[in-house]
């Protein structure tokens, strides 16, 4: 019977398993101020609005 000569490290094992994980696309929400498509919990790329205030840095 075949027996491994050395222990497979956790990093090597996990790298092999990582290719089987299916990634999902991030949710898209509507900006309440300008109605542009936006990723949740991020400031709006169009108007800079986030969490009730203008968050755009100058």
UniProtKB/TrEMBL annotation:
Is the keyword Ribosomal protein assigned to this protein?
A: yes
Cleavable signal peptide: none
What are the UniProt keywords, alphabetically? Ribonucleoprotein, Ribosomal protein
GO cellular component terms? ribosome
Location of the region described as Disordered in the Swiss-Prot/TrEMBL record: 1-20
The record's annotation in InterPro entries points to: Ribosomal_bL32, Ribosomal_bL32_bact, Ribosomal_zn-bd
Bias (Basic residues) ranges:
1-19
Q: Does the keyword Protein transport apply?
A: no
> What family classification does the UniProt entry report for this protein?
Belongs to the bacterial ribosomal protein bL32 family.
Return the HAMAP family for the record.
Ribosomal_bL32
Protein name as annotated = Large ribosomal subunit protein bL32
Q: Which species is the source of this protein?
A: Fusibacter ferrireducens
Q: Which gene encodes it?
A: rpmF
């Amino acid at each position: 019977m075949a027996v491994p000569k050395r222990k497979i490290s956790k990093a090597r094992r996990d790298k092999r398993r990582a290719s089987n994980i299916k990634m999902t696309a991030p949710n898209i929400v509507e900006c309440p101020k300008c109605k542009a498509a936006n990723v949740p919990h991020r400031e709006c790329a169009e108007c800079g609005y986030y969490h009730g205030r203008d968050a755009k840095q100058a």
